[in-house]
Amino acid sequence: MFSGRYSYAVDDKGRVGLPACFRDALKDEKHEILFITNFVVGREKVLQLFLPSEWQRLLTSLREKGRFNIEMQRFERFYIGGAHEVPVDKQGRILIPQRLREYAGLNGEVTFSANHDHFELWDRALLEKELTASEEMLMDPEFFAKLGI
Prior knowledge:
Elements: E1 5-9, E2 15-17, H1 20-29, E3 33-41, E4 44-50, H2 52-63, H3 70-79, E5 84-87, E6 93-95, H4 98-104, E7 109-115, E8 118-123, H5 124-138, H6 143-147
Antiparallel strand pairs: 1-7, 2-6, 3-4, 3-5, 4-8, 7-8
């Protein structure tokens, strides 16, 4: 559903504009909100954003997992407990909750990075570092074999 990377600046109030193609997806669903939550990629702190339909699909999937599994409880406490519903204003911006801005270190330049059914919001410099590491992995001749591609 989503593709691409888009860089923007977070303003002094913690607002950031959404890429036009992401706003279009919201319009297609007739929604004016997103769900945003904390996440970890590797050892890096990032934010994940979902359209309401995808957030509900994810919650349904999680409900089918082992409720009494301590790892699942911890994950849900962190991931779902950290989620916020954020409205998209008339200028196509969202206000990133302060706690989440602090968590992911989002102060200035940020990058939205698409990931199939959701997108991530990274500190721009941190994502550049992650992309460099990913590119180095891709140069390993065994990499795609390990993925089964």
